[in-house]
Amino acid sequence: VLVESLLVFAAVLSVHAVVWDRFSWCAVALAIQAFYVQFKWDRLLQLGGAVFQFRGAANSGLLPASMVIPLLGVVMKERCRAAGIVYFERFGIVVASTGMLLALFLSVLAVGITKPVPTNTCILTGIAGSIIIYTMKHSLTVSEVIEVLEVLLIFVYLSMILLYLLPRCFTPGEALLVLGGVSFVLNQLIKRSLNVIEGRGDPIDFFLLVAVVGVVLLGLVFTVLFIFMDSGTWISSMFFHMMTAVLGLGVIMPWLYRLIHRNPLFWLLQFLFQTQTRLYLLLYWTFLAASACGVVFYQNAKRSSESKKHQASTITRKYFHFIVVATYVPGLIYDRQLLYVAAVLCLAVFIFLEYVRYFRIKPFGQTLRHLLSLFLDERDSGPLILTHIYLLLGMSLPVWLFPRSCAPKGTLAGAGALVPYSGVLAVGVGDTIASVFGSTIGEIKWPGTKKTFEGTMTAIFAQIIAVALILIFDSNVNLNSSYAWILASVSLVSLLEAYTTQIDNLLLPLYLQILLMA
């Protein structure tokens, strides 16, 4: 935990060495108080006094998670300020302020339920809170303050509902990232739905907002309904499919129509088959999806043929990382907008299939439970299987969160040109190579972890090779002599992978994206 905290502090100071403003003081104060409060959360988790049931075999992860959203907002603000895009500069300020307030809320919650009340930690939390609120008072307009408070309110209600319904699925830090992100998306969708101006906004951004909110609402509706009825019967399954069609065609489609002012299905079909390149990419991705399904079926057939209980090895699970890299790299090079939309569709399908598995919806629910149980690890200790969804999110978030409006047209210069590749580098290449080489040839273990020195070093080396290949094959990338910063960023994130107990598929790409954007 101490080394993980040291690496997070190094990332915070590295960003603010480049981007130093009034929010830098807030970020440093937030990091210091989160470091102390993290130990209070860890003690609550050990004693079982954390109100909700969080994921075991991991620390609270409050410090690394607390800094992600604020740092992302700060670097987004600075990049858009340099580009002269005032609207997104203000948006970055709102993101940073929201992230700080959400992290502060989790800290206050931990301090409030700790007995006896930790005096020193209370004082630190009060000082950090005062600095953050003072800065927000002098940085945000009244409407922006209201927006930040709206996100906080949504986060509080979502946390109470989902953490109760889904025990042992998240650590406090993972809950902050996931539920904080969903809360922000829901607030943005409500805000844009109430202020629709024809022709303003990119349809693919609206598509992401509606898809995320739609699948979350779908899950909440069915969770409530299946409290009163058995979800494993044919009648319940027919009701599930019928209600999915009703909610999709009667709520989600009209909502999207209101935002983009055209038929969503026709728009989507026209978008997907607009060019010949997109058709080739879709065929290629279909082949890769079939290959991934083939791996699942083959491994399950292998399990059935063995007398003893068979569980997929680390190398077998990393096959999917290789497939995802093969999926994303051509999309990043040839058509990022298509990759953006395809990733949103894939996320919606993954979450829907998880509902089918979780609720045992016929005819595929029980089959999915059997097929996916082979690939479970210690992080899937709750009722949901989330590792494959986290993998998709880790690869997609750098694409979704990349401020396209603030990026210069044509060739992208500097380390920021690699921002969309953050997921590919950190998870697809770095995490995969570290796991494969660490589990096969690794002998020297990092103190206090199961990760090896050999795995980390080969991960750094592999990511540097991947950067060189990106330079060769993607003509829009020009690193412009920023090699030292890229090497330092990759090394820092690889060390964080060795020491963190949080979901690395989600955390590592975000930290690499922040460092590269800075």
UniProtKB/TrEMBL annotation:
Keywords: Endoplasmic reticulum, Kinase, Membrane, Transferase, Transmembrane, Transmembrane helix
GO cellular component: endoplasmic reticulum membrane
Entry keyword Nucleotidyltransferase: no
Membrane topology annotation: Multi-pass membrane protein
GO biological process: dolichyl monophosphate biosynthetic process
Sample GO molecular function, one term: dolichol kinase activity
Residues passing through the membrane, by range: 7-36, 56-75, 87-111, 117-136, 148-166, 206-227, 239-257, 277-298, 319-334, 340-360, 381-401, 421-441, 453-473, 485-512
Intracellular or extracellular location(s): Endoplasmic reticulum membrane
InterPro entries, per the entry: Polypren_kinase
Listed EC numbers: 2.7.1.108
Domain of life according to the entry: Eukaryota
Family classification: Belongs to the polyprenol kinase family.
Name the UniProt record assigns to this protein: dolichol kinase
Gene expressing this chain: Dolk
